[in-house]
Amino acid sequence: MVSALVLNDVHVSYHGKSAISGINLKVESGTVLGIIGPNGAGKSTLLKALLKLVSIDKGSIEIFGKTLEENRKRIAYVPQRSEFDWDFPIHVLDTVLMGTYPKIGIFKRPKKKERDLAYECLEKVGMEHFYNRQIGELSGGQQQRVFLARALAQNADLFFLDEPFVGIDIASEETIVDLLKDLRNLGKTVVVVHHDLSKATEYFDELLLLNKHVIHAGKPSEVMHPEIMLKAYERELSFLREAGVN
Amino acid sequence: MAFIEGLIQYDFLQKALLTSIIVGIVCGVIGCFIILRGMALMGDAISHAVLPGVAISYALGINFFFGAVFTGVVTAIGIGFVSHNSRIKQDTSIGIMFTAAFALGVILITVLESSTDLYHILFGNVLAVRPSDVWITLIIGLIVLISVYVFYKELLVTSFDPTMAEVYGLPVRLIHYFLMTLLTMVTVASLQTVGIVLVVAMLITPAATAYLLTDRLSVMIFLSAAIGASASVIGLYFSFTYNLASGATIVLAATALFFVAFLFSQKQGILWKKLNDKKNRHTLQKENI
Fold it and tell me: Using the beta-carbon criterion (under 8 Å), do B167 and A91 form an inter-chain contact?
């Protein structure tokens, strides 16, 4: 079977400064992959490169054995919550409905079928009672669930989530993790940029430890090994030492 | 009412009313996208940038619509080009490009000694609308409304979440320039009604008023159009009755409507907010006793 993602020697730079380099990675379908690493390690850059939101200097990325362009409709992306204008005049259901846009195509409008699908996706994240609320009226966790519902409405095979657990309540976090595992059990592939190390072992099937380049990729039990983690977080630790923390 | 009698009696007043209502509606519709995308300054810029186009059109003896749309779109592209290819931020780039276009327009009008009355282009003179202008306004209005209807979904998603739009393959940049073209056309349609200097008010004020009144984009668009049209009618009434510049009266009518919403809007109005705060405080104090 063809791998969901294959990265071959991927390099990305911003204004001549290398952000990530020499990334090699293979992700099989039916995996929940967590990308972890310190601040500035290039986690979001890697995600953006996968989605061609930034151009890569060198290397190749294959998605289901093809290019991104051939797979756009099979991909759902959940941006960081901080990227949205929460005062935007839009309701919860209309936000989820947006997930159906890619498959409707241009010139056409969402019909009852799409509305029903959006509502079902809201039920899956337990937010159906909030369907007519303005999105800014929700808590952080509820907002994140709504955006996951939107991704579900895209009926994608490959999901990308950028820091979905930042600033949200435990109940929402659990709902989201359960849904991601359900997706995995359906054979879907999920890639999550994550920075809270404590739950990484529970949440993910595979981990990619990143710090400008791949420090280690594999099973969480392998990656979450002190010696390996030290390699990625060395700089943070030396800071602590300098500050006299031991 | 002298205004009603005037409407029945005078052909020019009928044309003026029709034109300003269309302008109010169309500006209101496009304005919603302009304010939600944080492009208010862009609206001001494009409206000023049409001036050289108007001057050249008059000199060439063609309808000013063509020249105006041309220089408007060229300026929009220029603004994008400068901010994408340097560290110059968008608002700075807008400031550089539109003032340059406007200055060029002022010189062109002087040099070409065209029959254009600069004062009328700057401040509008809706009572002097010609039949051909009514047609142009009507056609522009239809093009804009149909475009927004047809591409509503795409305009919504690129305004709210451009990253998602890009990931699923929408030409986000192209849609931006498409909106800029619509904006330029709207500006041109508004030239005679409110003039270059005040067009931005017609784009922003009714849309901002509607924004205070609803939480749904589709409703906001209809409200904004209705508010824009009402401001046009009210403004025209005052312009005709008291012999005042139509652009100024229409804009002030829009501003008055804005302040009504600002004070009394159920959700966002400051009066309700204050009252609710007071009520909350009152109940909390009661609970304490």
Answer: no
